[in-house]
Amino acid sequence: MYIIVVGGGRVGYYLVKELLREGHEVLLLEKDPNVCRIINEEMGIVCFRGDGCEAATQQEVGAGRADMLVAVTGDDEDNLVSCQVAKHKYNVPRTIARIRNPQNEVLFKKLGVDVTVSATQIITEAIELEVPTHPLTHLLTIKEKGLVLVDIKIPPEAISAGKPIRELKLPKESKLVLVIPREGSPDLPRARTILQAGDRVIALTPAEIEEPLRATLTGI
Amino acid sequence: MKIIIMGCSRVGARLAGLLDAEGHEVTILDIEPYSFRRLPSNFGGTALLGNGLHEETLQKAGVEAADTFVAVTQGDNRNVMACQIVRHIFKVPRVLCRIYDPLRQEMYETLGLETISPTTVIAQLLKEKLES
What is the reported pTM? Predict the structure, then answer.
């Protein structure tokens, strides 16, 4: 695959290294001539000095035949424009943008960027997993469907504790997938399954219904 | 009319002064408070410190009720991104974007943004002056 990477910072540097190791044809676009020189001395001629947001630069490096463009500069606006130029001017089939402000995900998708990666989001989620008092943790996001897979722990004082699932007023768009009891082995939830304090429930839910679902299962 | 201007550059400040004098409701944004010194002393609009790429700042500036948004920061990409947020997320009826780079301007014009490239405009003006 021919992959163009925009931005030779730390993320760009390691990404290029990894992609080369996997045997791809890789070209890095970087504005700073010094950064370019250092990378070229280390990895061979992979870095082209130029502004990845400019159509002329993308033309020069043959964006028209690129399979993918990955924009990983530290500025969301530069990553957006690089991807838009690649997509709309050179029909690059797949564009990936790094974003710093997780809020920008919606906009980037709307504007035709295929994939967004937010380090902020990833770190937040990883930390959330490690906070033991948190009753709800995100396990997986299924972006195309707007669904999230969550792990909810039933607190001791919850209203849901001691009740069969059929008596709980769960949002109907949310599906309980698995119950992991505090003692005993995991089982598929049935209408008559009784939840106990300390049990964990794995559920699949539309992201916007996550809060009512959490409230029903963990509310006091 | 309610108008938001992003970037209190020389152009931004001057435009804000002109529109304010005509009685429009003007809010001007900049990330650097020192930039607001460029506003005329009798400016009656709002100078708001904040980044126009952040939705919270735009909401504080009243983007939901704005009729027009103009982006005139020094960065083409910043202008382009702000204009697209304002247009696609907040549905402001009229959005005007300054883009120095003529190639980028051409592309965003075809993508539906209303744009002005000072590079093209001024080169043309200078040429006409020289020929007259």
Answer: 0.77
Domain count, chain A: 2
Is A143 found in the same domain as A116?
Answer: no
Residues A67 and A116 in one domain: yes
Contact list in B for residue A73 (CB cut-off 8 A) is: none
Both A77 and A177 in one domain: the answer is: no
Both A16 and A102 in a single domain? yes
Chain A residue set in contact with B, beta carbons under 8 Å: 53-56, 75-78, 80-81, 84-85, 88-89, 101, 103, 106-107, 110-111
Between CA B6 and CA B97 the distance in angstroms is 10
Domains of chain B, CATH where assigned: 2-131 (3.40.50.720)
Same domain, A42 and A111: yes
SS (H, E, C) A121-132: HHHHHHHHHHCC
**Does residue A110 share a domain with residue A14?**
yes
pLDDT digits (tens, 9 = 90+) for A5-27: 999 999 999 999 999 999 999 99
**Which of A75, A77, A88 comes nearest B107 by C-beta?**
A88
Q: Which of A84, A99, A101 to mutate to test the interface with B (most CBs of B within 10 A)?
A: A84
**CB-based contacts of B24, cutoff 8 Å, min separation 6:** B1, B2, B3
Write out pLDDT tens, residues A89-124. Answer: 999 999 999 999 988 998 999 999 999 999 888 888
Which parts of chain B sit beneath pLDDT 50?
A: none
Nearest CB to A111 within list B54, B77, B84: B84
Is the Cβ pair B81, A106 closer than 8 Å?
no
Between A76-90 and B76-88, two packed helices, what is the crossing angle to 10 degrees? 80
Asked if B71 has any chain A CB less than 8 Å from its own CB, the reply is no
Give me the domain span that covers residue A168.
131-218
